[in-house]
Amino acid sequence: MKRPYVFCHMLISIDGKIMGNYMDTPQGIKAGDIFYDIAFGKKPYYHHQGWLSGRVTTDDNFTFYKKPQLDENAPQVPEGDYIADDQAKMYYVSIDPKGRLGWEDSTLVYEDTKAHVIEILTDKASNAYKALLRKRHISYMIVGEDAIDFEVMLEKLKENFHIETLMLGGGGVLNWSFIQQGLCDEVSLVVASAADGSDQTPTLFEMREKYSDDTPVEFVLKEAKVIDENALWLRYKVKEVKRHE
Ligand SMILES: NC(=O)c1ccc[n+]([C@@H]2O[C@H](COP(=O)([O-])OP(=O)(O)OC[C@H]3O[C@@H](n4cnc5c(N)ncnc54)[C@H](OP(=O)(O)O)[C@@H]3O)[C@@H](O)[C@H]2O)c1
Predict the structure, then answer these.
(1) If you write DSSP's letter for every residue of 72-86 in order, what string do you get?
(2) What residues line ligand 1, using a CB cutoff of 6 Å?
(3) Tens digits of per-residue pLDDT, 4-34?
(4) Which CATH class is domain 1-46+170-245?
């Protein structure tokens, strides 16, 4: 395969929500720990070299909606991609088409996992933004004019950063884009035995007209396990997407 193997790994409530108050219940916290251990723990099930998230997920968890400190007079940066570190043990691949995220460092720490940041941009990202990333030694790749070409992005991640297995880590908009484009091989769900009934929180898969539609997709169940009495771990293969004519 020219691209990495892609698995989508998510924590959900029993009604399929990827965030909300249910996460603060004892069952939600327990399921959160199980979720982390499967992908990042001391004896993980998956052995990936990077994980990928949408802009909203990154702002919620790592950049906290800070505005990037741009120098509009920065000298013109060289054309093309910028690879600051191709030897990291783990990468965080950040989907940020227009270059909006206020990164302050080239590495992030998620619980006890350290990762080098790779920004995925389009031609819409400004020279000032790219100059800022270079100043902070944050890698970036430009993959598309207006929209990100995910197939090309995956091939470049394998070629430039040696990523053989990649975790697709949400949110729902990004997950559905990948599944619809046939770029996600497996879905791994940790189902917390909790719910909160909110109508304000996103679900596991979210269609956005700009990026995807509601063509249905089927899955093949590979494994279902009860963990710690109440949580479920479900693994599915994604079936080929059949488009409407
Ligand atoms: N429970 C879990 O396991 C889990 C895991 C991850 C995230 N989360 C939660 O999920 C929430 C966010 O989910 P979300 O679905 O609202 O947002 P998201 O997928 O994190 O981010 C959406 C944004 O990413 C960019 N994007 C997404 N798909 C794209 C595509 N096909 N092409 C180009 N850009 C694309 C766009 O950025 P622009 O707007 O800049 O164009 C889009 O607005 C967060 O609150 C996070 O904490 C939960």
Answers:
(1) TTPPPPPSS-B-S-S
(2) 10-11, 18-19, 53-57, 60-61, 95, 97-98, 100, 147-148, 169-174, 177, 202, 206, 211
(3) 999 999 999 999 999 999 999 999 999 999 9
(4) alpha beta
